[in-house]
Amino acid sequence: MIYLDKGRYDVQQAKTQSDLDAAQVLRAQCFGRPHTNDIDAYDTAATHMLVHDVASGTLVCCFRISLLTGERLTQSYSAQFYELSALSACKGPMMELGRFCVHPDWHDPDILRVAWAAMTAAVDKVGVQMIFGCASFAGVETEQYLDAFAMLKARYLAPKRWLPQVKSPDVFRFAAKLRRKPDAKKGMLRMPPLLRSYLMMGGRVSDHAVVDRQMGTLHVFTGLEIGAIPVERKRLLRALV
Question: What is the DSSP code (8-state) at residue 134?
Fold first, then answer.
């Protein structure tokens, strides 16, 4: 059981169906489908983490984590969209991070920090070697994100030893198509906060984005090898646990 009390916010595992319902409602709100629940087949096997504002009790962030080993990668959410056979060679347990949502009315960067602290506790608990998932851009049109994708191509592509291959029929092959020099400021401004956090810790991405019309997003596979996280950033994360 993971529980963190960090002043204004606390984070804990969902324990009841009501906890899970609240997370699914927040997910639907963040994905532009209010007044419903966002439910999929991967919820059952996952651990769901909830970040609350202590004073009001408001659920301000949620995400789910699933522990996997190489032979079980085909059972991951990400494997629907990316060919992950190269990743199966990674040794040690891996953790898939999914459905990461922050309440649209809350913009406090401490929410993301507390969420990463909870993930750090989970990583340390079982010796996870890699965190991975799909990092999403809002909408399915690429034009507004070209500087961000150009930055990903220039600086953040995954190494060939675990680079995911194309599986989805609808993709934007930004590494092959883009020839522009990125505007770094514009690129980082257009980068989703979760993906920005991954990159700051040493995360790397696929060479293509999947166009997910069901969810109304573009997403890139994002992997973070725990051994690649800078020592100082590891120290800061563990200080929050």
Answer: E
